[in-house]
Amino acid sequence: MSDNKKAMSDNKKAMSENEKAMSDNKKMISEDKEAISEDKKLVNEYREGMRDQESDTSANSPQISELDKQFSHWQSAYKDATPSVDTGSLIKEIKSARFKLKLKGAVDLLLGLAVSVWCLTLVLFEPLSTYQFLLFMVLTPIPAAFGAWGYWVRQKQWKVQTLDVQSMLAFKQNQLKQQLHYWKISLYGCLALWCGLLALAVFNVLMFNAFTLWGTQLLINSVVVYIVYRRYKKLNADLPSALKKIEDMK
Q1: CA 197/CA 217 separation, integer angstroms
Q2: How far apart are CA 171 and CA 158, in angstroms?
Q3: Which of 16, 94, 100, 133 is the most buried (most CB within 10 A)?
Q4: Are 182 and 150 within 8 A, CB to CB?
Q5: How many CB atoms lie within 10 A of CB 209?
């Protein structure tokens, strides 16, 4: 009997533990259901957020499309307004310009030396009056000095290094400015020589009645002065547009 009572007590105890375990299982299942419910709630909130975002994107898409069109229009307008640079042609122009500068520099120097030698020959070997002697003495170094100056200016230009398009464009700009400066100084030099010849012609006409010779020389020199003046005026008028054209290529 005692053993039966003990067995029944153990069975009751085991049943109590089983009921407790079942209660714990129910509690865990309830917690799992709550977690699942929370997950479903988060998923629903995420889906609502995605729908709102898609709605905002759809509403803003016309505005974005309009901005893209405007940007494309700006790009097209910029390309149309920006002239393309033919690098090969530009290199050929630079080489040709350098050759011309070398040739002009050599011509300036040789002509200046020739005129100075001629004036010096008159001073040394021609019978001149005191006034003529002084005048030719003053005029003798001017052509040679002018020729040397012209050669130096040309030399500075053709020795400029041009390694890229920007440097070549800068070379062209500097060449145009130096060209105008050269013809400006040439005009002043020709005017100075013309004034000297005028004084010499007046003196010889009054003193020796040598009107034909000195009048012819003065006329020839006047034509030279006029040609140099017209060249300077043309270059001065064309310079702003030429510089702007090169500036637009940069």
Answers
A1: 8
A2: 9
A3: 94
A4: yes
A5: 8
Calpha distance 214→99 (Å, rounded): 38
CA dihedral 21, 24, 29, 33 (to 10 degrees): 170
- Amino acid letter at 79? K
Of 116, 107, 121, which is closest to residue 139 (Cα–Cα)? Answer: 116
The Cα 19–Cα 26 span in angstroms is 10
In angstroms, rounded to a whole number, what is the distance separating the alpha carbons of residues 180 and 241? 14
Q: What tokens appear for 75 in the block?
A: 């790009």
Q: What is the C-alpha R_g of the chain?
A: 50
Tens-of-pLDDT digits for all 250 residues of the chain?
555 555 556 656 656 665 665 666 566 666 656 666 666 666 667 667 666 665 555 555 555 566 666 656 655 655 555 555 566 776 777 777 778 878 888 888 998 899 889 888 888 887 777 777 887 788 888 889 988 988 887 777 666 555 566 777 777 888 888 889 989 988 998 898 888 888 878 887 887 777 787 788 888 889 989 999 999 999 999 999 988 888 877 6
